[in-house]
Amino acid sequence: MAEGGFDPCECVCTHEYAMRRLINLLRQSQSYCTDTECPLELPGPGGSVGGGGGGGGDLTLPLVMMGWMVLALLLFLLRPSSLRGPRPTGKPTGPHNRDGREPPAPPID
Description:
- This protein is elongated.
- Mean pLDDT is 74; it is low at 47-55.
- By secondary structure, the chain is mostly helical.
- The protein has helices at 9-12, 15-32, 60-77.
- Helix content is 37%, strand content 0%.
- It is built from 3 helices and no strands.
């Protein structure tokens, strides 16, 4: 529990929500398992009992890889200009002088 009695995790997942999920999971398993048999694979995102798994395969790895590729592309396109290839020879590279000399001093009145 966080200080002051506020737990930010409870905003996302409360105890009541967790209990509700557990009860729903038990109810779903009771509808698939009987007194005499219980299939090894329960229906769900990767299961094939009942809900038409149909050899669709698991898309988790391809989706994660696609997400990383999109993130890499965005970072590549939004990179700063200092990381973008060679500069034209006519433009200075920064605020400092290339020849190493100090700028002239201001006139004193």
